[in-house]
Amino acid sequence: MNLINDNDRHMARMMCVMALKSSEDSSRRVARMHLAAAQQGRIQGRIPYGWIRTGPDKGKPLGPETAVVRRVYAQCLTGETAYSIATRFNQEGITPPQSAKWSSTMRAGILDPFKPHIDQRFARGCTNARRLFEEIV
Question: Has residue 117 got a pLDDT over 90?
């Protein structure tokens, strides 16, 4: 394609319009799929620590890890620092999600998947941390 030529420039514009239409169609299909999954209560995206990641029980709480998640939330609510939580978990020999030892940044990774829900509830006026904690865990 030679963009110096009028016909080729016109063809390039048409190709861009068709590519945009295709992209928008794909975006709508993906959005519909995510909406349908959410309405059916299925987890979407990366499944966080504390939940079964594969198989027929995918998206259901995983016993031992769920207890760890509850402890992280409870200790955060009491004002404990991420460093002290990580240090205690390492001393107790609790297995972290992806590495050999817990670190203060891992705690944020456990809490982050629930941030959209917390933000939404906060925007609706729920500022009670205990209630939000109970809704999540």
Answer: no
